[in-house]
Amino acid sequence: MLMPIKCSIWEDQQFTCARELLNKMLGGINMNDSISAQQRAFLKSIPESERLRIQKENQDEAENLYKEFTEAFGKGMCDSCGKSYSTFSKESPCFHWLLRPGKSKKEHIEKVLKAKGYFRCAAYVRWVANFDSHFKNINNLSEEGNVEALFHWSAKYKHIKWTFWCTRNDYAGHSNQPPHFHFEMRLDKMPFIKFNDCHIPFTDEDLFNIRANEDSESPVKQTFGFHGAGLEEAFSVDPEKLIEGLITTENEEEAVYHIQTVLHLEEGIPCEMLNKAMAIAKEKKVPVAKIIRELGYDAKVVIEPAESLIAKESRSNPRQKNSA
Q: ∠ at Cα 117 (186, 128), nearest 5°?
């Protein structure tokens, strides 16, 4: 059972905040006419130097916002409204309502989701879920849950668990509904908001981001970056690089990965050498396979999610193993 130690093995994906590009686009085309084709053409018409400038500015802004968030969150304060996370005022919808402060009800949280949109609320939830421990509290594994959905992932923080879910039919807008997503919220494992309680319409910014992400030719993509990364990103790293950046833990609740070491040797490995490798690995808190390789033997590893990791609510698939 292992967890990452070297964050340097992670590389942020291409990240461009849609806000500035969206504003440019809304001023230049009719959003009701061939939107996807026009959006692609619009984005491609922007010089690469301009896209890179916007990307750099928004990466810097995201880092500054994350720093403000962590500093405030650690003090029990909301960086968005400047108030305590325990406060609730019906006149001032805020992201921290997603933590269900005070006497907030279902309709209040629904109001925030509709006002802020999917991507902004999802980013906030992911930052909260990663506050104490990175990756392990966000299950966005693509092979689990509703694999045909546009998105389906769960996140948790202490006694709160959120699930965001959107099928292709939801995105198309079924039953006279606009394109929308569903949301579930559990408190102490008990449902507080159920998937079928409400349909949350996507904002224009949401639709812009989704179209960009779905379009293989789009030069702009929206991601949640390193600070919003979950298990999908944790298991997307080259297993060989992953082995080099792990430490072991004796606390199963802290584990992100479960690693099995497999030896393929015709003549086997001497018991004293294996015992030596295990002793060194325990002392250095590194995978046994790493030490065995350093001693000149061939060792393969099977990497899979630790049993203690969060499960997607209401949906599950057998976990796929990655080998190195």
A: 50
Separation of alpha carbons 252 and 307, rounded Å: 8
Distance CA 124, CA 66 (A): 10
Better-scored residue on pLDDT, 109 or 316:
109
- Residue 178: exposure state from Cβ atoms within 10 A (0-12, 13-18, ≥19): exposed
Helix (H, G, I), strand (E, B) or coil at 227: helix
In whole angstroms, give the CA distance from residue 65 to residue 83. Answer: 16
> Which amino acid would we find at residue 250?
E
List alpha helices for the chain, DSSP H: 18-26, 35-45, 48-73, 106-116, 118-129, 168-172, 204-214, 231-234, 239-244, 271-284, 288-294
Per-residue pLDDT band for 320 (boundaries 50, 70, 90) equals very low
What letter would DSSP give residue 252? G
Beta bridge partners of 248: 2
Interhelix angle for 18-26 vs 35-45, to 10°? 110
Residue whose pair of structure tokens reads 């009800």 in the numeric block: 105
Q: Of 65, 129, 57, whose CA–CA distance to 99 is shortest?
A: 129
For residues 283 and 318, the answer to whether their CB atoms sit within 8 Å is no
Query: Which pair of tokens denotes residue 271?
Result: 């018991």
Q: Are 15 and 225 in contact (CB under 8 A)?
A: yes
Residue 14, SS3? coil
Q: Are 231 and 135 in contact (CB under 8 A)?
A: yes
Nearest one of 75, 74, 76, 104 to 92, comparing CA atoms: 104
List, for residues 149-179, the tens digit of each pLDDT value: 999 999 999 999 999 999 999 998 887 889 9
Helix (H, G, I), strand (E, B) or coil at 103: coil
Q: What is the mean pLDDT of residues 201-217?
A: 93
